[in-house]
Amino acid sequence: MRMVLWLLRRDLRRRRAETVLLVVAITAATATLTLGLTLNELASRPYERTRAATAGPDLVIEPGATGPEALDALAAIAARPGVTGTSGPYPLLFLDLDFGALSSRVVVQGRDEAAVTIDQPAVTEGGWVRPGGAVVERAFADAFGMRTGDTVTVNGRALRVEGLAVTAARAPFPNVNWHLPSTLDVWKGGAIWVHRDDIPALAGTQPISYNLNVTIADPAQAPLFTRLPSGEKDTTFRGWHVRRWQDFADTTGRRYGALYETLLIGSWLLTGLAVTGVAGIVGGRVIAQRRRVGLLKAVGAGPGLIAAVHLTEYLLIGLVAAGAGLAAGWLAAPVLFRPSVGLMGTIGTAPPPAGLVWPVVALALAIAVAATLGQVLRAAGTDTVHALADAATPPSRSRLLIGLSRRLPVALLLGVRINARRARRARLTTVNTLITMTALAAVLTGAVQAPGTEDLGGTVIPDVGGDRLRAATVLLIVLVCGLALLNTAVTTATAALDARQPLAVARSLGATPAQAGLGLAVSQVLPALPGVAGGALFGVALQRFFHETYGPEPYAPAWWLVAAATVVLLVVAALTAVPAVATARRPVADALRH
After folding, report:
1. What string of DSSP letters covers 227-254?
2. How far apart are alpha carbons 404 and 406 in whole angstroms?
3. Helix axes of 303-337 and 257-288: crossing angle, nearest 10 degrees
4. Which of 187, 204, 252, 329 gets the highest tally of CB atoms within 10 A of its CB?
5. pLDDT by residue (tens digit) across 323-367?
6. What distance in Å separates the CA atoms of residue 333 and residue 43, rounded to the nearest whole number?
């Protein structure tokens, strides 16, 4: 064990740059997975905290009738079996609100100044209701830019904004279930609370509706409240609006559906890139450490010890990257997506739960093991003499391929044969460009879709979740492109390191330095071609499969995809140029000697 730790510490110190690259590659994947998993917390935990902080009801019941008839219907609810408490009835109006140039449908609920034990909205800014004022639901205020002290107009009557509040008895803006009295069709809008005494003046000619907040003995059975013991629907509630706390929680969760899918897909793509990146870095390290493996075996170290040293190193790096990705994703989620503007609490102030930590750690370790295990075992099993000589592994030969490649131009011939010697690295390049082009094609396909909107009656605003989705998309494309660039740089550097002797031999047989350098560049561009072609098709299919499309143009123009593919290939070629030039300038004797 002491030997393993000594070698591990020595290796990490000598190869700090490569260690940092490994941490960055795995951290990108784990951070994105953390963001995706955190959405469950964003969608559920804030609602749970809001429900606890505001003494949220199990059911909110509104009869189909209005006025005294509605009050009589609600009076019988308290006596129903299982009911443990009620608050209300509270008067309701379904009106329009104007704020500057903006207007919206608004649900107006009359409340008393005194606090109640069931559904007491939590004031987050300002104060509670008072005559002549209004308290605005916080998500509604955020969307319209309302602040305490502003003036809004409701049904022609000016009201001062006394405060902002959140509630668990109604879904946040814009899913407030606005409807005309005695009708079942619901629409989107905002919600405010006013003093009960202001309701008659605000109502005008509209009949006053009422709702009642109810708690029951078993909140989990709320969906069965409107059913008879036989399981059939209770006709008493025909034409009524009965909303359960589960309905509000589900509505909150659905707001993040597209965002969750986007981050989940992004974590898949980044995981693939991380595996290819780590495999490329490990491949370069294994090549550079081939002689050290021979020395260890010469002094008595067995394959098990050599494999243990390497695997321990990469598992440790994976754990560090898991911690970094977990912290970055957990802390960035509320900043990027502002999930709880209509609810209580936020993510990032408390430690992440164990149910989120373990998948992230498992992903990091899986990436480290999947990308390194095969190469480490092959290195540990290398013949001692072969490892001490630091000789390249001879390629597998095929008469057909040799015959075909014989007629190729010199640069193309060298590129083909470099890939034939290192077929696994060529496949990594293909996967890297495939994933990158998939992400770009999906984003371009999404860019042509008509953005979603929210019709609030007098104003149409962009979908309230659209800004979060755009932020997630930008974040993912930056991470994907950044990690892909890193992978390409590492792969080309590793290819140059591994091809130094074969290219030197080719130059000694008559190839020019330019042909040798161009051959190295060709070896990277060739496997990228099927990657960009497949990625373009797969990205469009991925976008179409996971997201609804709107408008007459469901696909990105073909020239967009061709341009993106061309850029990817040019970037691969450009990143290969530096090691290619260095290879071409190196004297043949030096390359053959080392």
Report:
1. B-TTSSBPGGGTT-EEEEHHHHHHHHHH
2. 6
3. 150
4. 329
5. 888 887 777 766 665 555 555 555 445 567 667 788 888 877 777
6. 12
Residue type, 401: L
Task: Using the structure block, give the residue that is written with the tokens 């030997």.
Answer: 3
Question: What is the average pLDDT across 423-452?
Answer: 78
Long-range contacts of range 231-240, CB-CB < 8 Å, 24 or more positions apart? 237/61, 238/64, 239/63, 239/64, 239/182, 239/184, 240/61, 240/62, 240/63, 240/64
pLDDT top residue among 490 and 175: 175
| Residue pointed to by tokens 């709880």 | 340
In 10 A of CB 71, how many CB atoms?
A: 17
What burial letters (b/e) apply to 304-322, b meaning 16+ CB within 10 Å? ebbbbbbbbbbeebbebbb
DSSP 398-414: -HHHHHHHTTS-HHHHH
How far is it, in rounded angstroms, from Cα 284 to Cα 179?
A: 65
Rg (CA), the chain: 32
Handedness of CA 369, 371, 377, 380 (dihedral sign): negative
The dihedral through the CA atoms of 115, 120, 125, 129 has a sign that is: negative
Query: Looking at residues 529-558, what average pLDDT do you find?
Result: 71
Q: Beta strand 83-99 with 209-216: parallel, antiparallel or unpaired?
A: antiparallel
Strands (E), 11-76: 59-62
Pairing, β 133-137 against β 157-166: parallel
Question: Of 524, 499, 503, 502, whose CA–CA distance to 574 is shortest?
Answer: 524
* The two three-digit tokens of residue 539, written as one number: 């990205």
Cβ contact 531:430 at 8 Å: yes
Which residues fall within 8 angstroms of residue 463, CB to CB, at 6 or more apart?
Answer: 451, 452, 453, 454
Q: Look over the chain and give the mean of its residue pLDDT values, rounded to a whole number.
A: 76
Q: How far apart are CA 278 and CA 21, in angstroms?
A: 8
Nearest to 15 by CA among 319, 281, 279: 281
**Chain-centre distance of CA 529, in angstroms?**
28
Instruction: Tell me the two tokens of residue 330.
Output: 């957990």
As a whole-number percent, the residues of the chain with pLDDT over 70 amount to 68
CB neighbours of residue 535 within 10 Å: 29
pLDDT interval class at 551 (50, 70, 90)? very low
Beta-ladder partners of 110: 194
Rounded to whole angstroms, how far apart are CA atoms 96 and 155?
Answer: 6
- Tell me what pLDDT residue 549 has: 44
What distance, in Å, lies between the first and last C-alpha atoms of the chain?
A: 33
Residue 471 CB burial class (10 angstroms; 0-12, 13-18, ≥19): middle
Query: Is pLDDT above 70 for 390?
Result: no
